[in-house]
Design brief:
Blueprint: H1 20-39, H2 46-49
Length: 50
């Protein structure tokens, strides 16, 4: 089953204090969090069924 998730994700550039890998990890985590929050109201996660 395929469906689209209407979520905008902000990609932030890395700063001088962090590496590109740190920035990539943070951006991936932010994206997954945004997707998770968009699925909860749709009842697509176990948390929404409780």
């Amino acid at each position: 089953m395929k469906f689209k998730i209407p979520t905008e994700i902000e990609i932030k550039p890395f700063t001088e204090e962090e590496t590109a890998l740190d920035s990539l990890k943070a951006n991936i985590l932010n994206a997954l969090t945004a997707v998770n929050y968009s699925l909860i109201p749709a009842g697509k996660t176990p948390e929404a069924k409780e």
